[in-house]
Amino acid sequence: MPNKESIVADHVTRRFGKKTILKEISLEVFSSEIFGLLGPSGSGKTTLVKLLAGIDEASSGSVYMGNITLPRREMLSKIGYMAQSDALYEELTAQENLDFFASLFGLSGKTKRRRIEEVMALVNLQDAIKKLVSSFSGGMKRRLSLAIALLHQPKILILDEPTVGIDPILRVSIWNELRAMSDEGTTIIITTHVMDEADKCDRLAMIRNGSLIALGSPDALKQETNTSTIEQAFLTYGGAQA
User: Fold this and answer.
1) Phi-psi region for residue 11, left (φ > 0), alpha (ψ -120 to 50) or beta?
2) What are the Cα distances from residue 50, in Å, to 56, 144, 158, 165?
3) pLDDT tens digits for 208-228?
4) Would you say the pTM of this structure is higher than 0.85?
5) Where in the chain are the domains?
6) Class of the 7-84+155-241 domain?
C-alpha cells in the first residue's frame, strides 16, 4: 500500500487501439519532492503525467494518490496541472483568464487578487495582464499557463514541459520558485527533455519508447553509469535497453 502522501504507478500500461504507449511502468513519487520525467519527444512522458494527474485511465495497472485509486474527480482540486498544449481562452485577456480559473479553484476577493498579482509577477507578465491572449507569443502563453496552474497553491503540481519557449533568466526564476514550493511541502512532477533541468530534480525517471529505463537521483544515475552528465547517463541506460 502506498504512503498516504505519495503518488504511485503500479505496473501501468496505456494502449490506444493496438498501439502501446506505456509498458508496465512502476514508480513512486514521494511527498514534497521534485520528480522529473526525462525522455525524448514521443517517449510517453505526457501520457504518464496524465495518468498521474488522474485525467486519464490506465489500460492495465493502477495509479494511487495516497490510498485513493485514480482517476477520481474529487482529487482534481488538489492538483495544479499544466498541459503541454496551452488550455487558454484566446479571445479573453490574461486577466479574464486568471479570473475564470481562479473562480473554478474557489478563490475570491482579496485572496484571488493577491494570488493573481503573485503568479503574474513570478512569470513576469504583469505588464500584459490587460492584453488579449490571442496577441501573446508562444512563450507568453506558456508563462500564463504556468501562472494559472500555480494560482490555487496546489499540494501537487504537475507540469508538462513548462519552460519550453521561456528565456533562460526567467527559467532560473521559475526553478527557484519550484524549489521553494517543494521546500514548503508541494509535490512537483515535471516532464522535460532539457538536461540541465533534469539535474535540478530530486529524482528522475528516465523514459524511452514507453518503458522506464532508470530511476533515481541525478547523482546516483550518473554514478551508476560512471558518467559525468545526465545526458551521458540517459544514453548509457538507453543503449543498454536497445
Assistant:
1) left
2) 5, 20, 9, 22
3) 999 999 999 999 999 999 999
4) yes
5) 7-84+155-241
6) alpha beta
